[in-house]
Every structure is written in structure tokens, then in C-alpha cells.
Design brief:
Elements (H helix, E strand, L loop, with lengths): L2 E3 L16 E3 L46 E6 L16 H7 L7 E3 L6 E3 L13 E3 L5 E6 L14 H12 L13 E7 L2 E6 L16 H4 L19 E7 L3 E6 L18 E6 L3 H9 L5 E2 L5 H8 L6 E16 L5 H4 L8 H10 L2 H9 L29 H15 L5 E5 L5 H17 L2 E4 L4 H11 L4 E7 L4 H10 L25 H13 L5 H17 L3 E14 L3 E2 L18 E2 L3
Parallel strand pairs: 1-2, 3-12, 3-13, 15-16, 15-17
Antiparallel strand pairs: 4-5, 6-7, 7-9, 8-9, 10-11, 11-12, 13-18, 14-17, 14-18, 19-20
Helix pairs in contact: 7-9, 12-14, 13-14
Length: 597
């Protein structure tokens, strides 16, 4: 599944965290930070006398660690179009930011390791622990054991019936929910604290199924598409939905029946409530943060904004600037339509591609575009599972002299006196425009005749991408944790899957490609093998080999991961840890506490 990335859209489908990779069509300072218009001004409960909610304080048993009580205010530049993650508009990032306070599912993304961890279940099922079985008939069975203590906010235990009801809701054609992978479930078994399902074939994509569970006893019989847009069903998370004053805020309050405890045994959450304030202008968010009117923000990661926030660190702020899952890359077009853009294209020659790899000064790129806030990428794998990255592109250091030597070899092999490159990307993205200017200097310095032909994003991500009408291109993909994300990105380069049915926009190894060799044939074998197993001991070596081939053959050149940033007044709020993935900065909201009480 391949979709265009829209600004601030979360990388999960209506029913589950999408394993799919998403072409990042927008970004940079020219990018809009609004995905939909804000809802009209109405209230879902009786509003307080001011624009701020009335905060009440409750107490629980004395903690052994942080104190209980207090409120944290989180600011965002968007307002949810709905609270229901399964319906249209539910994939907006702000829906998940708020939803982390009351949702729960099989898995969570740990903000420290960026790996999948269990949430509602005792452990994530694998072949090793017996939770996954590849059957003799070619099917695959997955088993969940639900935590005994897991319950809804009204005290009803979370059960296998809730998992079955979630599946039934997803598969109900009247709800128009994305059924990817769910539709491959051919049978289920339900228990009070267990749920088992069988898929028609083995697939690692099971990793992200049932990421958000729906309570059968609260939702059954309701109008699913319309009844849960402005209120929320009973909570499985640390907080309960309290109030939504449209255009102003959403408030959630402590779930006294929350089942999770801190490592020291404290009942979670620590806070009485969390307020999500909606401030549509970035400058206004920064102003409110400076004035300590809000405690936590995740502003657009412009380098100027980051530097402005970092100036507040001596006053008690903490600014976390991290590499996010969106990774930019330079790439070559191997199909015949590249000649429309550049009749003299030399992309078929490996020495030319290696020369380009040594021409690129990645450090200068991140210094100029990201103010040196992150390190250049040596592998796209870093955006998926950093621990599995081999850094395969580290072999291509910035080395103009070596680039010129390789160019001379390429000229001899191609029978050319000179080599030219035409670079295309989106013209309405400031970072990419800056990149094109940097490339002009770099390529010219090694003797490559260079030309920029940038286009509006609708054109570039339309007919140009679909038809392979570029020579040297640049855009971004989005990584997701787990082996499923890596298998998905390998699928993108499948020689048997050119557009429109596949996502091999590069046309590397496809039937009309200028490069069809032993490497493309082996890569096709690897891709097939990856989609026939769930055994990590088989998957990881194959993924490593695939990464090596893509690097050695210079099919693409990873450049950098886009920044994600968050700021917190650390002298007021403890327990905060920014999460650069789609789990968002509210991923561990149950652990937050007030330092100042």
C-alpha cells in the first residue's frame, strides 16, 4: 500500500498502525501544517465560564515516587476532525496525539528503543515464544494472551470478545474501514482473556493488527460512524474523555480504573488531567510556551524554531530534537522515460552512480538544511529499526577526487566525452529547493554538467513519479518500527512491481529497466522470500542482504531523516520522553507528573 504523505497525517490506517511506507509529498517550511479545516464551534458538554476548562484535583494513595495531582497543558496547531480513529479523518496525527490518553491495543512503540512493545497482551507473539505458528497447510495462526489486569474504565475486563468485535467492526462494509491484512483472517477463537486468529498465509504484517481495541459492551448497537466523533467510548488508557470545547481544547481526566502500574508499583496515571489546547499559528504556540501557558509542545521542526526554543533551556525548558521516521533520499530513474527528461542520462552505469554518491556532501546538507541538528543517514534502515542497520552507505564518503576518477571510468565505459545530470524534485518545498542549490555546486565541482528542473508537488508526485519521467530525483519515505516496515520498503524495489500496480517507481530491474542483472534477480528472490516467512532468524539476514545490494548498486542514496522536535518545561513536568514515531510525544502520558507540587 502506497499513499502520498500529507502534512501531520499519522502513519496508521483507520483500523491499525499502517505497516505501509508512504511517499512524503510535502514538508519543509513551505509545507502546510493543516490537514483539514477545524470543526465549527460547538461544545459536547456544558462549557465552563471561560475558555479554559475547570480543573479539579483528586487524590489517590500516596505514591512512592512522583506526587499525584495537577494538570499538564499540551498545545497543538491542529484540532481533531473526529475522536474516532477508524472513520474518515481519524488518521490525522492529532487524533492519535489525543487518543494516546485513552486508547490501548496489542502493541506500543517504545520512545526509548523505538521498538514495538506489548501493551494489552502479556507478550508480542512470535514463532519463538509460540505465539505464532506457520501451519502445514500454509496458513498462519497468531495467539494473544490478554493481561489479567487489563480492564475498561468502567471496570469491565478487556476480553477476547472486544478483539472479535474490533475485527467485526473493521470488516463491516458499512463502515468503509481499511481492511488490509484483516481481510486475510479466515478464522478466530475467542476466550475471556485470549484471542486467536488464523491468516490465509504467513506475513509479518500481523505485527500491527489490533493496535486499537474497541469495547464491545459500550459500542455494540451504536451508530459507529456518527456516535463517536465528538465523544469517546470507555477508556482503556490512563485518562477518560471529559470535554471538548470546539476551537479551544479537549480535556481528559484520570481513569481511576486504569490497570497499568509504574515500575515502583505506583498506580498510574500521576496527573489529574491533561488539556489539549488548539493554537493554529506556530508563533502563537511558541509565545504561549514562553509564557508557560502551555507545558508541552511539538512544533513544526524548522531550524529557526528549534534554535529559539533551545534558548529557553537555561530557564528550565528541555528541547528534544530527534531524527524522525521521514527520510529523504536521492535516487536514479532506470526506466526509458528518464530519457524524456535527460536524453544523455547515464544512470545505467554503476561507476557513474558511485561517482554521484561520492559527490554528495551529506554533512554540508544537514548543516545547511537542518542546522546540523541530526547526523546524515548511512542507511534507510535507521528510520525503521536502528539496531538492524548495517550503515551500508558509509562506504561512500564525500570524496570529490574519487568521484572524478569514477566519472572518467564511466565516460570510458559509456563512450562519452561528458556526463550530464538533470535533477528533479518539488519546487514548493524550501528544504528541497535549498538541496538543489547545494547539488549545483557539488556536481559542477566534479565535472558533471548539472541542471535543476524542479516541479510543483502535484506534478512531481503525479505524472512525473508515476511515469518515471525524471533522471535524478529526490523525495521521502516514511519508516515504521518492526520487521514488517522493513519488508514493506523492500517491496518498493521489487523488480516485478513497477507502477501502476506496484511501487517500484525507480524501475530498477523491471522489464523495461536499463539495469537487469544478477543483482536485480537476486533482489527479486529476496523479496519473495521475505514475504513467505515470519521467522526473524530468516528475515534479518535477508533484510541485511537486501540493504547491501541496494547500497553496493547505488540504487538510492539516503540523505537524512527529517527532524521531529518537542519541548517541555522540565522544571514543571517530569516523566516526559519525546517519541519521534507515529506513537507521538504523548506515548507515555501516564508517566507524566508535576514536578512543582
Amino acid at each position: 500500500m502506497t499513499q502520498l504523505w500529507r502534512s501531520r497525517k499519522v502513519v496508521w490506517s483507520a483500523a491499525f498502525l499502517a505497516f505501509a511506507l508512504i511517499a512524503a509529498a510535502c514538508g519543509g517550511s513551505a509545507e502546510s501544517t493543516t490537514t483539514t479545516a477545524g470543526p465549527t464551534a460547538t461544545t459536547t458538554t456544558a462549557p465552563p465560564s471561560t475558555t479554559q476548562p475547570v480543573v479539579t484535583t483528586t487524590t489517590t494513595a500516596a505514591p512512592t515516587g512522583p506526587a499525584y495531582g495537577g494538570t499538564v497543558v499540551v498545545a497543538d496547531d491542529q484540532e481533531p476532525p473526529t475522536l474516532n480513529a477508524f472513520v474518515p479523518g481519524g488518521d490525522n496525527f492529532i487524533v492519535s496525539i489525543v487518543g494516546q490518553s485513552y486508547w490501548a491495543g496489542v502493541q506500543e512503540i517504545d520512545g526509548f528503543t523505538l521498538e514495538l512493545i506489548p501493551e494489552l497482551v502479556t507478550e508480542l507473539p512470535t514463532e519463538t515464544n509460540g505465539g505464532v505458528t506457520v501451519n502445514a497447510d500454509g496458513t498462519m495462526t497468531v495467539r494473544y494472551t490478554i493481561l489479567d489486569e487489563a480492564q475498561w474504565s468502567d471496570g469491565v475486563p478487556i476480553s477476547g470478545d472486544d478483539f472479535q468485535f474490533t475485527l467485526d467492526t473493521v470488516m463491516n462494509p458499512d463502515n468503509a474501514i481499511d481492511t488490509t491484512t484483516y481481510e486475510d483472517i479466515i478464522s478466530t477463537e475467542v476466550g475471556p482473556k485470549s484471542f486467536t486468529y488464523t491468516l490465509s498465509a504467513p506475513t509479518v504484517l500481523y505485527e500491527f493488527l489490533f493496535g486499537n481495541i474497541i469495547p464491545k459492551h459500550d459500542v455494540e448497537g451504536s451508530d459507529f460512524l456518527n456516535d463517536w466523533n465528538e465523544t469517546m467510548w470507555v477508556s482503556a488508557g490512563p485518562f477518560i474523555f471529559s470535554e471538548w470545547q470546539k476551537g479551544e481544547f479537549i480535556e481528559v481526566v484520570r481513569n481511576d480504573n486504569y490497570w497499568k502500574k509504574a515500575e515502583n508499583g505506583d498506580q498510574l496515571p500521576y496527573l489529574d488531567s491533561v488539556i489539549f489546547r488548539f493554537i493554529p499559528v506556530t508563533d502563537s504556540i511558541i509565545t504561549a510556551f514562553k509564557a508557560r501557558e502551555v507545558d508541552v509542545i511539538q512544533p513544526p521542526p524548522a531550524s529557526e524554531t528549534i534554535e529559539e526554543l533551545q534558548k529557553l533551556e537555561p530557564e528550565g525548558a528541555r528541547v528534544e530534537v530527534l531524527s524522525g521516521p521521514v527520510w529523504e533520499h536521492l535516487n536514479f530513474q532506470f526506466g526509458p522515460a528518464r530519457l524524456i527528461r535527460n536524453p544523455d542520462s547515464s544512470n545505467e552505469n554503476l561507476n557513474y552512480r558511485k561517482a554521484v554518491a561520492h559527490t554528495i556532501d551529506k554533512q554540508l546538507i544537514v548543516d545547511e538544511i537542518l542546522a546540523g541538528q541530526v547526523e546524515p543517514l548511512d542507511s534507510f534502515v535507521e528510520a525503521f529499526s536502528p539496531t538492524l542497520s548495517q550503515g551500508s552507505w558509509a562506504q561512500y564518503d564525500y570524496n570529490p577526487e574519487k568521484a572524478m576518477q569514477l566519472l572518467e571510468l564511466a565516460k570510458t565505459e559509456l563512450g562519452k566525452d561528458s556526463i550530464s545530470t538533470v535533477f528533479s524534485t518539488t519546487s514548493n518545498n524550501d528544504a528541497r529547493v535549498k538541496l538543489s542549490e547545494l547539488f549545483d555546486t557539488m556536481f559542477s565541482a566534479v565535472g558533471i554538467v548539472y541542471e535543476n528542473q524542479l516541479e510543483e508537488s502535484q506534478i512531481f508526485f503525479g505524472e512525473t513519479l508515476d511515469n518515471g519521467q525524471w533522471d535524478l530525483g529526490e523525495w521521502a519515505w516514511v519508516g515504521s518500527p518492526g520487521l514488517s516496515g522493513l519488508v514493506g520498503i523492500i517491496d518498493v524495489f521489487d523488480p516485478a512491481a513497477p507502477p501502476p500496480d506496484g511501487s517500484n517507481f525507480y524501475q530498477w530491474g523491471t522489464p523495461t529497466s536499463s539495469v537487469i542483472d544478477d543483482n536485480t534477480a537476486r533482489f527479486a528472490e529476496i523479496r519473495t522470500a521475505l514475504n513467505q516467512t515470519v521467522d526473524p532468524t530468516v528475515l534479518v539476514p535477508l533484510l541485511n542482504e537486501a540493504e547491501t545490494i541496494l547500497a553496493d548498486q547505488v540504487v538510492i542514496i539516503p540523505l537524512y531523516a527529517r527532524l521531529v522536535t518537542a519541548a517541555v518545561w522540565a522544571d514543571e513536568v517530569g516523566g516526559f520522553k519525546h517519541n519521534p514515531t507515529s506513537a507521538s510525544h504523548t506515548w507515555n502520558i501516564e508517566q507524566w507528573y508535576r514536578v512543582d507540587i
